[in-house]
Each structure stands twice: as structure tokens, then as C-alpha cells.
Design a protein that fits this description.
CATH class: Alpha Beta
Strand content: 15-25%
EC number: 3.2.1.21
GO molecular function, one term: beta-glucosidase activity
CATH superfamily: Glycosidases
CATH architecture: Alpha-Beta Barrel
Keywords: Glycosidase, Hydrolase
Number of domains: 1
Family: Belongs to the glycosyl hydrolase 1 family.
Protein name: Beta-glucosidase B
Largest sheet: 8 strands, parallel, barrel
Strand order of the largest sheet: 1-2-3-4-5-6-7-8
Distance between the termini: 37 Å
Number of helices: 14
């Protein structure tokens, strides 16, 4: 594939994490039970429900081409069978505004959250609940189906199921409940397949190109000690359970012996028009729990920063299913410090986009990149403590402040195709914004060092970047800082 194919860049978000004024759902209940690290709940978060026009305008000012959004089921159907059409009209106004600004929405129907009444009925652990999700999806399509061509049915089913029923980390909470894990993954796959058909049945596919995907969380797994047979075996198990174990059921309608077969008949076929992948990190494997290699770059959650894993997953999945790749989420927790909004997110963005550019040059059909996220938001069990956004908020007013990474992403987009190609040969992005106060164009606009949760630190500028960084002695080490 040539780099001349269209490559679009934007951001991703989820309703529960940004909207505020959140009606009761499975996550408001979880927060009320004290299960969030910083004690916060999803209200007010970024108050996007009341400030969406401001956020859309800011997205457009940065030149974002695409935006992954989601609708809040609990807001649309607060009681079983009762749909709030005013809410649907509000979503319609928001998405029409995005389109009017030249931003293409990708609408997600289920992003971890659903009404309390659905949770009380067993959610996706019960196959008989799948029609409830499809009824909700039908109502959304009735009101929004003519606005967007692109849809994500379900976000990260593997994360949803394992965290809820294996590790007791998310609602409803369960430890080693393998039966519920299996039934949830099986029924979510059934819901995706039937929703795929529903979208095609309801939308006019003769006059427009409709594309449907699910967002699959992929993680790179590697044995902590490659010589340890236990580590190698668990690497295979983790990869099979978390990555590969759900793919065929969602994409092809082929269910493994582990998941079991739904009672509803499913005809094997292709139930995705693109492969959505959410990628964040690599895990060093010693068992079923997460681990990190020593002496690797990590973010402020202790997750390894490993761009190679993104393109490895993209290549594997594109070859396996012969589908284009949408990077539906990729981002990092960078909480800044020492008076700075962020320390390494710019470097993170450039390294991952460079890896994508190289993969595209090698023929991997990556079409889109959705950075997680736009505004620092409520990060599920981490609350408001972890910052993934390219835009921050003033603490009291919630006014938006664009971070350096936001301007960087805007510059990359404005440079167009040439910038993505140029990353292959060390293209220097000509930053125009006065906020940067740069004396020369730079490729890696990032501070060199930052503390990490486990006490480690990394030198983020490589030797090849000395011309970009001021170098001076710091406690006997060579410390480099970005020219600002």
C-alpha cells in the first residue's frame, strides 16, 4: 500500500467518561461503592454534555478529521423500554455539528457502560438479554443512522469481560468467574454479529459506504524470562485468552470450544468492514497478571511504552482477516509535573505515528488513527487522576487548555500526507504556534526525563536528537531538555 492512500487522524472519547450529568448506570453505581482510586465519579467529568459545541469547535480549530464518539445507553433508555427522544435529538445536534465542521464521527454503541436495569438483569452474561441491546441499537439508528457512515458496535469486549469477571476490577465485579467470562464474550460476539446485520438492514448502503467494526483491545505479550518455560506457556495462554480468543467469533462468527456456541444460530461469514484495534502497551508475562520489564520506558500508570506492538498487531490482523485497520484508541497517561502540562506525550505520538508510517510503507492498510483522548477525562477506576488528553481543563471552570501535544497533532494533520511520509526520513514538523516558542523546527518536541510510578526514569531523547535538545550535566548524567 502506498502512503498516498487517505490516512485520517483524530481523537476518541466515551460518553460516561466525558459527558457529566450522568444518569444511573453500571459505572455510577461502581463509583458510589467506593471502587474508584481517587474517589470521584463520572460527574461532572468534563461536562461535555453541556459544552459539546465548544469541544467540537476546538477539535475543528486543531484540524481533527475524525472523532470517535459514543452514545450513553442509560441516558437514552433510562428505564427498560422507555426511550428519551430529546436525548437522541441532542446527540443528533452534536454529530451534525461535527459533520458541518468537516469532522467524520465514528459512533460507538456500547463503550463499557449500560443502564442499571440492564446490569440487574445480568447484562451480557445472559443470551436472552442480547435483544435488549439490539432494541437500543435500533432506536439509535432510527435517529442517527443518516448522519454517520461508520459504526463501532462494542468496545473492548475482552477488557470488559476479564476485568469484570476475572479480576474484580470493574462492574459488576467478580473474581475468577470463568463461566460468566465465557458467556459474556460469547453473547457480546452474538450482539455484535446481529447488530452488524441490523445496521446494514436499516441504513441505505446503495447510496453510501457504510462500515461497521468492533474495537478490539490488543496487547503485546512477551515472557519476562524467555528461558523460563512457565513464562512462555503463560504468554501463549494470555495471548490466546485476551487477544486471539475472541477475534474469530466477532469477525467470522466462528466460536471456539472455550467460548462455546450461542443457542441462536449463526452463519459463519465476515462481520466486520474494518478491524478496530485499541493498543496501549506490552505486558511482561510471568502468569495471568500484568507485569512490566525492567528498564523500559513507562508512562504514569507504569505501562510500558512500546510502539512496535501496535504495528505488530495491525500487521497480524490485517493479514489474518484481509481488512483495513483503524487504530480506534492509542494514548498514554502523562500527568506532567514541575509546572508542565505533559512530559512525554509528544514523543509518544511521534513514535507511534512513525511506526504506523513505516507499517503503511510496508503494505499494512492502516487507514485511521484515533488518539485517546481529546480532553483529560474520567478514566474509569482511575478517576480524574490520570491524564490522557491532548487538552487539559482548568480545575474550577473546566475551561479547555490545549496542550503541546494538541498543537503537535494539529501540525501533523495540517502538513497532510507529506508529514506522514516524512516521518520515515526524519521529517521536521514546522511548528507555527506561538505557544511553542521554538527557535527551529523540531521532530521530537518533548522533555527528556520524567518520574514514573515505580521510581524509574527514562531519557526520552536519543543520541540522534542532540541537535534538538539542550545538553548539560545533571548529577553526573547527561540530561537533555527540549528547546522551548
Amino acid at each position: 500500500m502506498s502512503l498516498k492512500v487517505r490516512f485520517a487522524i483524530g481523537t476518541a472519547s466515551a460518553s460516561t467518561q466525558i459527558e457529566g450529568d450522568m444518569p444511573p448506570n453500571n459505572w455510577t453505581r461502581w463509583a458510589e461503592q467506593g471502587r474508584v482510586v481517587d474517589g470521584t465519579g463520572p460527574n461532572p467529568s468534563t461536562n461535555h454534555w453541556r459544552r459539546w459545541e465548544e469541544d467540537n469547535e476546538l477539535m475543528a480549530s486543531l484540524g481533527l478529521q475524525i472523532a470517535r464518539v459514543s452514545v450513553e445507553w442509560a441516558r437514552i433508555e433510562p428505564r427498560r423500554g422507555h426511550f428519551d427522544t430529546e436525548v437522541l435529538q441532542c446527540y443528533r445536534a452534536e454529530y451534525e455539528d461535527l459533520v458541518s465542521r468537516g469532522i467524520q464521527p465514528l459512533v460507538t454503541l456500547h463503550h463499557f457502560s449500560h443502564p442499571v436495569w440492564f446490569e440487574n438483569e445480568g447484562a451480557f452474561t445472559r443470551e436472552e438479554n442480547v435483544p435488549l441491546f439490539l432494541r437500543f441499537a435500533r432506536k439509535v439508528l432510527e435517529y442517527l443512522g443518516d448522519i454517520g457512515d461508520d459504526w463501532v458496535t462494542i468496545n473492548e469486549p475482552n477488557v470488559y469481560a476479564t476485568q469484570a469477571y476475572l479480576f474484580n476490577e470493574t462492574p459488576p465485579g467478580g473474581k475468577a468467574q470463568w463461566g460468566k467470562l465465557r458467556s459474556t464474550l460469547r453473547n457480546m460476539a452474538l450482539a455484535h454479529i446481529q447488530c452488524y446485520g441490523l445496521i446494514y438492514d436499516m441504513l441505505d448502503t446503495k447510496e453510501r459506504q457504510v462500515r461497521v467494526a468492533f474495537a478490539h483491545h490488543v496487547r503485546a505479550f512477551a515472557p519476562m524470562n524467555p528461558r523460563n518455560p512457565v513464562h512462555r506457556v503463560f504468554t501463549w495462554i494470555d495471548d490466546a485468552l485476551f487477544n486471539r480468543g475472541v477475534e474469530d467469533s466477532f469477525v467470522l462468527g466462528k466460536f471456539s470450544a472455550f467460548l462455546g456456541t450461542p443457542t441462536t444460530p449463526i452463519t459463519p461469514g465476515v462481520y466486520a468492514d474494518a478491524m478496530g484495534i485499541n493498543y496501549y502497551s506490552r505486558t511482561a508475562v510471568t502468569g495471568l497478571s500484568d507485569g512490566t520489564f525492567p528498564d523500559v520506558p513507562v508512562n504514569d500508570l507504569g505501562w510500558e511504552i512500546y510502539p512496535k506492538g501496535l504495528v505488530q498487531a495491525a500487521r497480524r490482523l490485517s493479514e489474518k482477516y484481509q481488512l483495513p485497520i483503524w487504530v480506534t484508541e492509542n494514548g498514554t497517561a502523562d500527568n506532567g509535573g514541575e509546572g508542565k502540562q505533559e512530559r512525554f506525550r509528544c514523543r509518544f505520538l511521534l513514535e507511534h505515528l512513525t511506526a504506523i508510517a513505516k507499517a503503511c510503507a510496508d503494505g499494512v492498510p492502516i487507514e485511521r488513527y484515533y488518539h485517546w483522548c481529546f480532553v483529560d477525562n474520567w478514566e474509569w477506576t482511575e478517576g480524574m487522576a490520570q491524564h490522557f488528553g491532548i487538552v487539559s481543563m482548568e480545575e474550577e471552570s473546566l475551561d479547555r487548555v490545549v496542550k503541546p501535544s494538541g498543537y503537535l497533532l494539529g501540525e501533523i494533520i495540517s502538513a497532510g500526507e507529506g508529514c506522514l511520509s516524512g516521518l520515515l526520513v526524519g521529517f521536521c514538523v514546522p511548528f507555527r504556534h506561538a505557544h511553542w516558542k521554538l527557535r527551529s523546527p523540531v521532530l521530537f518536541a518533548v522533555l527528556s526525563q520524567g518520574p514514573h510510578r515505580d521510581g524509574r526514569s527514562r531519557w526520552w531523547c536519543d543520541d540522534a536528537d542532540d541537535h534538538l535538545c539542550g545538553v548539560h550535566s545533571h548529577h553526573g548524567s547527561s540530561r537533555r531538555e527540549c528547546i522551548r
